[in-house]
Amino acid sequence: MPLRGKVVDPNRAAVAGADVWASGGGLPSSSAVTDRNGEFSLMLAPGEYNVRVIAEGFSEVTETVNLATRPGSQPLEIVLSVAPSSATVTITDAYGVSAVNPYL
Predict the structure, then answer these.
(1) What's the rounded Cα separation, in Å, for the pair 91 and 104?
(2) Using the 8-state DSSP alphabet, how is residue 85 labeled?
(3) Vertex 81: Cα angle to 24 and 77 (nearest 5)
(4) Residue 55 contacts by C-beta under 8 Å, 6 or more apart in sequence?
(5) Rounded to whole angstroms, how far apart are CA atoms 40 and 57?
């Protein structure tokens, strides 16, 4: 049974190159990578799956999908949030080095 979907950012722009994994208790798992349009397709047995999506620069998302109750022609849309920045700023002056906390 195919599971089709699209991965998008908060502005509904396609996210290409996202890794998509589907796994369920005792069911065969499958994975795919989104194309340039953010689309993916997985062939899965009927059942309930956790669909996990990871893309660089975005927060990981996991959704539960039940293929037994989901219409086959209805594509799944997964919206990824932009990952928080973890940059550190270092300032050097004549007296030494001071680290500035980016969370202030």
Answers:
(1) 15
(2) P
(3) 55
(4) 7, 15, 17, 18, 19, 34, 80
(5) 19
What is the rounded CA–CA span in Å between residue 37 and residue 10?
15
Q: Take residue 43 and report the two structure tokens written for it.
A: 């062939």
Q: What is the pTM of this model?
A: 0.76
Distance, CA of 32 to CA of 40 (rounded, Å)? 6
- CA geometry: angle 77, 82, 88, nearest 5 deg: 165
pLDDT tens, position by position, 11-51: 999 999 999 999 987 878 899 999 999 999 999 888 889 99
Q: What's the rounded Cα separation, in Å, for the pair 47 and 26?
A: 10
Tokens found for residue 1: 């049974």
DSSP state of 80: P
User: Cα 93–97–102 angle (5° rounding)?
Assistant: 105
Neighbours of 52 (CB within 10 A): 16
Cα distance between residue 103 and residue 32, in whole Å: 35
